[in-house]
């Protein structure tokens, strides 16, 4: 206060006013500094309290997500390999089914050809049977005709003997006597020889025809039996091929069903994995 009074004693009036103005401004500045210090202290205290109340932030561990993603990627690769293997098996089953279908069609065609041959052989056998019956009827007719000729011959000979008698002698001028019995015997011998030759020729022809027919019948029977055996074998082959074809088709259907189920299951898993990857990427984007 003494210094201030001394200064006021030596200063002019305008200088006093200036000093008073400066003192007021300094006091105002100091007051503002004090207020700011108080406010800063209050803010520091509030910040400290807020930090003490907050839970310390820890960066989340994404290693489990990465391991899950890696496992899903491995499963996806395995699924793709399994799908490729199933596709190859389906293609092989289709090729095998086509091969069996081709074999089945060939066997059916062969069976039809053999059945056609058998029908032709049956017709030939029927014709041969009818021909044999006709020949047998002709032989019986020839035998009856031969017996009839023999009977007529005997009747004619007996009639001539009755007409001429045993003592008849015919004399011709300047001509030797003729023995009618000898002449008749010779005629009878010649006629019997002719009839016997005709009978023998007819029997030989009949035997020859019968032998040929028998051989043809035997051959036809053997061919028929062979064809029947072939048809039985072809039917067995066709049945086996049909069973194999049905098995291949069943396996193909099962593989296609398994492939569809596998694709649907792994499509769902891939969708879930994609959703997880999207969530992880969004969380990483928020953190960055």
Q: Would you give an account of this structure?
A:
Keywords: Coiled coil, Intermediate filament, Keratin. GO terms for molecular function: structural molecule activity. This is Keratin, type I cuticular Ha5. It comes from Pteropus alecto. One of its GO terms (cellular component) is intermediate filament. The protein is mainly alpha-helical and 288 residues long. It has 2 domains: 52 residues; 225 residues, Orthogonal Bundle (Helix Hairpins), CATH 1.10.287. The chain is 90% helix and 0% strand. It has 4 helices and no strands. Helix 3 packs antiparallel against helix 4. The radius of gyration is 68 Å and the shape is rod-shaped.
CATH architecture group name of the largest domain: Orthogonal Bundle
Count of extended strands: 0
* Helix residue percentage: over 70%
Rg, Å, rounded: 68 Å
Based on CA inertia axes, which overall geometry fits? rod-shaped
Taking all residues together, what is the mean pLDDT? 74
Q: Tell me what portion of residues adopts beta-strand conformation.
A: under 5%
Distance between the termini: 65 Å
Text of the CATH class of the largest domain: Mainly Alpha
> Helices and strands, in N-to-C order?
HHHH
Q: Report on the biggest sheet.
A: none
What are the segments in which pLDDT stays under 50 over at least 5 consecutive residues? 1-11, 167-176
Structural class: mainly alpha
The CATH topology of the largest domain is given as: Helix Hairpins
Q: How many separate domains make up the residues?
A: 2
Number of helices: 4
Short description:
This protein is mainly alpha-helical. The chain contains four helices and no strands. The two termini are 65 Å apart.
